[in-house]
Structure formats: structure tokens, C-alpha cells
Amino acid sequence: MDAFKALSPHLVASQLSEFWSPRVVAEVDDVYVKVAKVKGTLTWHAHDNEDELFYILKGRLRIEMEKQTVELAEGDVYVVPKGVRHNPVAEQECHVMLIERKTTQHTGTEVTEKTRSLEEQLRPV
User: Fold this and answer.
1) pLDDT at 30
2) Where are the domains positioned within the chain?
3) Mean pLDDT in each 10-residue stretch from start to end of the chain (125 residues)?
4) pTM for the whole thing?
5) Burial class (CB in 10 A: 0-12, 13-18, 19+), 22
6) Alpha-carbon distance 20 to 1, whole Å?
7) Distance separating alpha carbons of residues 102 and 118, to the nearest angstrom
8) What is the pLDDT of residue 1?
9) CB 63 within 8 Å of CB 80
């Protein structure tokens, strides 16, 4: 990853061809900045040791949690606290920027056909 290359998270997200397949676009200390194009449902999961920040670049995202549901629109930010089971849902195509520790597994300990390894997330767009 070229640390001096300027990029647009909006452009990167729009170029992605797969839903629910985040790509790392930057790193800051022990954190990855990722973008993803999402539609439909990911899966119920939790990150036991890491918070997960969602920033909506385009569209709308619903984050279902056991005790509440949060509706996010373009420009909104929400942090899912560590250990909270959640299920992201996008009725229509949505572009998301995620900020997560490098240790965060895509779908926590849940593994589905949508789960992406860190190697997959680090591949070029």
C-alpha cells in the first residue's frame, strides 16, 4: 500500500464489484481503514475485543443489534461497541467506510460464504 498516494474512498467503493467484500484503503497505527459496497444482509456476529466504526459514504445502512436497531444515512457515523452482536443490512446498495483494528476478523467467529480473510481485504481494487 502506497502511504503517499491520495485516494477517494467514494471512488474505491464505487469500483468494487462484490458486495460485503471490504478492501483496505489505508492504515493508521494499529487500525485499518476499509471501504465496502454492501447490499442485503451480512450475518449476525460480534467482535469480542474490538469496536467497529461505520461511516456511510452513500446510501442507507441498518445495523440490527439485540437491544436496538440503528438506521444510518449518508454522512452518519456509528460505532458498534466490542462484544455487541450485530447484523448490518442494506435494502439498496450502500457504500461504507469502516475503521477497525488490524486484529478485527470480518465476521468475528461466525464464518459464512460472505466472510473475507484479511488477505482478501488487502488485495488491490
Assistant:
1) 95
2) 10-103
3) 67 92 93 96 95 97 97 98 97 97 89 84 82
4) 0.90
5) buried
6) 21
7) 9
8) 52
9) yes
- The answer to whether the Cα torsion of 36, 74, 89, 108 is positive or negative is positive
Burial (0-12, 13-18, 19+ Cβ within 10 Å), 72: buried
Q: Residue 68 has which C-alpha cell?
A: 436496538
Task: Classify domain 10-103 at the CATH superfamily level.
Answer: Jelly Rolls (2.60.120.10)
Interatomic CA distance for residues 77 and 118, integer angstroms: 23
pLDDT at 121: 87
Euclidean distance between CA atoms 42 and 90, whole angstroms: 9
For residue 50, give the 3-state DSSP assignment.
coil
Please give the single-letter amino acid code of residue 46. A
Q: Which residue carries 460472505 as its cell?
A: 114
Res 125: pLDDT: 76
